[in-house]
Predict the structure of 4-nitrophenylphosphatase.
Amino acid sequence: MSQPKHLTGDKAGIEEFLSRFDVFLFDCDGVLWSGDFLFPNVAETLEMLRSKGKQLVFVTNNSTKSRADYKKKFDKMGIPANTEEVFGSSYSAAVYIARILKLPGPKNKVFVLGETGIEQELDAEGVSYIGGTDPAFRRDIEPEDFTNLANGSALDPDVGIVLSGLDFHVNYLKLATAFQYLQRGAVFLATNTDSTLPMAHSLFPGAGSSGAGLVKAIGKEALSLGKPSQAMMDAVEGKFQFDRSRTCMVGDRLNTDIQFGIEGKLGGTLAVLTGVSKKEEFLAEGAPTVPMAYVDTLGDLLG
Amino acid sequence: MSQPKHLTGDKAGIEEFLSRFDVFLFDCDGVLWSGDFLFPNVAETLEMLRSKGKQLVFVTNNSTKSRADYKKKFDKMGIPANTEEVFGSSYSAAVYIARILKLPGPKNKVFVLGETGIEQELDAEGVSYIGGTDPAFRRDIEPEDFTNLANGSALDPDVGIVLSGLDFHVNYLKLATAFQYLQRGAVFLATNTDSTLPMAHSLFPGAGSSGAGLVKAIGKEALSLGKPSQAMMDAVEGKFQFDRSRTCMVGDRLNTDIQFGIEGKLGGTLAVLTGVSKKEEFLAEGAPTVPMAYVDTLGDLLG
């Protein structure tokens, strides 16, 4: 595989690169911002792309936020965007459950491990669920819980799916409950399986980390509805009807964003160095995942 | 490998099998009891072995209990045993940290993910620690925690080890804190890595499950001080000075107990069918881990 092109400072190279694509799929955390820190010239760069007639889609694995939450985040950050341009892993999971998996009722309820973003998107797709942010599950496990989970009296017989996402309120009671549903045959889904979450210029445990306990206990991986799973690409394409050869994925993580674009046979991939992956990882001999091009920061595309 | 011998109901077979060994290492959960349910004839079986002059050692991966806690459990269950016969994974970890790892001070403090059993054994070995059952860590993560963990102001500079065990009070704050220590180079240890915990005639997430989030986030396994890690076998042997060829490991889990005995080159291994592993798993063609013999329940050794 040829070396990726470094576009920072290369005005002609940038112009040529941008001309190849009509659609840009953007990762958000680590690309547009890190936590509440907006990277320089992001709004101007997106504006430049829009002015050239490019379609922008914000494809994010962050399952704690719904599309509506994300719109608020864009507003707060001063980045023009509309809700329809946002495609999050929670939405992807809700679409998968409601429109593709379509388990027959009544055993089609979801047990949610995660935050309100998942609940909002399930609501939007008319999927019923328990768990999630319900205060009844935000407590320590008690001795009687072991008995009632084991004999099933504390379980909802209608649960047929466990959906695991990033959960800032993970606890043993929720893990044990989800594990019981999985042992009883529930379908095991994950919004995404990112090992880490970039926050405050550092890394914190990601959705893959908060779901790893369940994976370990049940001994199998969840079907992921986030990057780099192509289930998510299919859903994005289904909604936006783009030409893959004229589409570019922009992201900071080789093993999620760039992998997602390569496996999806997109026309191009662009790495930014403001997030998780370092350029040494893709410039190294025999690197498993190599972007088509890279910039130090997204704002470098302004030239 | 030859088929394991089924000893249940085989009086002569049992006598011959027992005569080969001077020392029996017992797993506890799933062998002697399941949760608070004592399997039939356990006390009588252990008494029979003692009357034949056998040394008994209770080698348990349950890190939530100290040896003293385990002694209480034996008393409650009506099984004669003394504290010195108990060798738990928390004790194993404390011994490893204090006597083998011996990090130079002051950066040799332990951040504990787990219950009081770990703390008691660290205390017994004079190892200083934070985390564990400290109520300061039993709360939700707040926005300022991300900042203070990322910039290190919420971290203890003397922590050089993260020790992960079964934690019924696992939460995101503790995982994020441990992950920060690991990113700063702390040694990553686990009391044990059992995926599940047998309780109330069912399975619940085990120590390997509550620690899996950290493994996923940091991208490497912890060094385990529980079965089947031979670090634990070395510690047991160091204490009890037994002849491995005259020692038999008795357990319910192929991938921990039986593996532990086989890798430790013990004279024999005996599986019981009252716990996690089913006989179909070791009777199958090409089974990876096969015990020397098995009984349906431990009490079958009474003949």
